[in-house]
Design goal:
single chain, 135 residues, mainly alpha
Length: 135
């Protein structure tokens, strides 16, 4: 039996490890405690996870399995990375805008910025704390 993973690391957790409701419930509980459940998931994703916990013993439909895997991946990365995850989410959109502007100006090396997570986190930090921009 898989049980609830409250004291273990969530790194490497996949839907294959979450074969029963208890495990998905434990992941939900951990995300709620950390304040990640509402920030990392959309309302549709939260509803799908809640309904799956309540009514599905073991998912068999490939679409449902794929959707639940995406939800589990989002939650586990948000739990493992914490604050840096949300900085990266916010900074990624800013990075995409800046890459477009830089490539229009002729800087072709700027395309690498789209995949640089450290750059995303830096931009997210500057967006969240504007007084640091001059540093």
């Amino acid at each position: 039996m898989l049980g609830i993973y409250c004291s273990q690391s969530w790194e490497g957790l996949t839907l294959n490890n979450l074969k029963n409701r208890v495990s998905l419930t434990g992941l939900r509980r951990k995300a709620l405690r950390n304040g990640i459940w509402f920030r990392a998931l959309s309302s549709i994703e939260r509803g799908l996870a809640n309904l799956s916990i309540r009514y599905v013993k073991e998912p068999k439909n490939n679409r449902l399995i794929g959707a639940l895997e995406e939800i589990v991946n989002k939650l586990t990365s948000a739990i493992n990375m914490g604050f840096l995850y949300f900085l990266g989410l916010r900074g990624r959109h800013i990075a995409e805008e800046r890459v477009e502007v830089a490539t229009k100006w002729g800087n072709q090396q700027a395309r690498a910025w789209k995949s640089d997570q450290s750059f995303w986190q830096f931009l997210g930090l500057n967006a969240n704390f504007p007084s640091w921009r001059g540093v």
